[in-house]
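Reading group handout, session on sequence-to-structure problems. Before we discuss, look at one worked example. The prompt was deliberately terse, the way you'd type it at a terminal:

> structure N-acetylneuraminate (7)9-O-acetyltransferase

The input record follows.
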Amino acid sequence: FKGGDTCEYLLSSGRFLGEKVWQPHSCMMHKYKNSEAKNCLVDKHIVFIGDSRIRQLFYSFIKLLNPQVKEEGNKHGNIPFEDKSSSIKVDFLWYPEVNGSMRQRIKSWTEGSVAKPHIIVVGAATWSIKIHNGSNEALTQYKINITSIAPLLEKLAKSSDVYWVLQDPVYEDMLSESRKMITNEKIDAYNEAAIRILNSSSRNSKAKVKVFSVSKLIAQETIMKSADGLHLPESSRDTNAMILMNVYCNKIMKPIDGSCCQPQPPLTLIQKLAFCFFTLSIIGYFIISLIHRNSFRKNKSCTDLESGEEKKPTISTPNVSTLEMLLHSFCKLGLIMTYFYLCDRANLFMKENKFYTHSSFFIPIVYILVLGVFYTENTKETKVLNREQTDEWKGWMQLVILIYHISGASTFLPVYMHIRVLVAAYLFQTGYGHFSYFWVKGDFGVYRVCQVLFRLNFLVVVLCVVMDRPYQFYYFVPLVTVWFMIIYATLAIWPQIVQKKANGNCLWHLGLLLKLICLLTCIYFLSYSQGAFEKIFSFWPLSKCFELNGNVYEWWFRWKLDRYVVFHGMLFAFIYLALQKRQMISEGKGDPLFSNRVSNVLLFISVVSFSTYSIWASSCKNKTECNELHPSVSVVQILAFILIRNIPGYVRSVYSSFFAWFGKISLELFICQYHIWLAADTKGILVLIPGYPMFNVLVSTFIFVCVAHEISQITNDLAQIVVPKDNSTLLKRLLCIAGFFSGLLFFSAMQDQSRH
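And the output record:
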């Protein structure tokens, strides 16, 4: 199903999500703030012409520019509005009937000497029905009058945006006696006449009067809440005004979460080069496959006719195999990236806004928890935070985060605060895992660093190129990358202190603690010195990685939000490994971690701490205040979870293979969701199958998980080729990678210059 003309859909079709959220068919509607509306309409003149219903729409529209405006003034007269700061003029002209007076006013704008309004919104009919008591003669006259006005509106449509607002239905039971003749049957007859006559002479022309018929659909759902049965409730009028704003402003402001009426963005130079690269990879793979296959056929074992002995081919194909594997990986990646582009950059598939309900979040959570418990298996080892357990932890956290994103649960503060803990737990694992590796193995080689950096960043770099997004847009990957480098620098700089060295002399433990204290001091200083932080990351070329919308504030905010949790992970790893070395904990199968008494006390404290944090998070009233406390207190629930999960031996000895499977591809799932599960850079939901929300989620989820799994395999395959163990070969590859990024920076600078 292709998206089609989203402007036409926005003006003509949609449905309510809940009671007040309007969802246009096939596209997403942006909620404009007054500053955005002013920027869009600067130096513009907008005119509303019609009766009391159009006057209501006029007031809702100007409240988007100035919420303080009050609905006062002559109800049956013209009402001007001006915003001098932005040079915006919005006028309401009282013409309750489609007649000669309205025609004369519209005709005056078609004459060369008069300045034409940029936007014209017209509509009227109920007064004609009321004054003439619903007579058929009045309808006939209405048709004659609209026929005379239509050519003028079509002429104006060549240079201005002209909208004809169809008449909303009425709630006949609530109408006063003086309005009883205004029936829905009569309104439908007037609307049919307007639709038939308007644009009749310009059906094949691009310049058309846009018929604003969506108001009818909105009114059908909400007119029973009307105060008098004729005029729409305020929330419905506001929705109509927001639709008008989206129709006109989306193509100017290009909001990420406003896909309606937005043209497809043109391909950048870097995107074109990426397309050529993937195309050549696909062609190259098929050519090499054919050559390889033919070579294999020719060199099959054959019999020597003279000696009667079998000859064995002596061909060596390791280089061909490596090249074939490389091209095969890029071939698959190219096809996958095409799907990414079609989903979230081309106007091919539909997109919809998110809408949060408690059931849309909590029912899937219960469902995946049941599945996770069902697939329970014994672990291979029973150490604290063993590989299977950490994969399981990453897996269920990732699934919860995915449900949080698709359900739009960020609007519900208690859920938001708990999800912040899950993101912090990922970073805690980063600190714990990398510290443990360096401390135990003592391997500070370039190979290890390059392997980690490649696996973390490969997919994001490709998406930055293909989807034309900055590196910082995928904020989690820059976060874990920078923290990995901080952990590496902390432990690798002189003096290098590792477990083997510390076992010989206890003073080395103090030296490591001093290093950790220095790290904590630096974190504390940077978190309270935004200026120093921004100076560090504003230097070129770092600024190209960490800027978003022209500054590094977003990066500072993301870093600051979980600034202590990686340090907590490192400290926990140090304490745990020290206790393990001194055999102060029992990690046998089925054994509690400590003595029964100590284990019971720690379990009780952990359960109380876990519950206390949840109660505090659920009682949060202000997101800003809670975010301020979060970096210091999130570790409480993380440590409580680790102790609850590991103290009882029987709990530590089992894991969920279902969650662990997802945990192994958690990074790919987190990144891929941006474009092929969600839409409009996570602001909306991708719609592959419109009209069937549950079926659509099932299909898009299946494709999304398969793609994430495939990308994980591609990344692993390429990591073996791009980051070899041989140091001299690795150095050559690093020079090639440096050349690639230099080229990327050069082309990016060219793009920026052409945009300016």
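Points for discussion. First: Residues 6-253 form a domain with the Rossmann fold fold (CATH 3.40.50.1110). Second: The CA atoms of residues 29 and 246 lie 7 Å apart.
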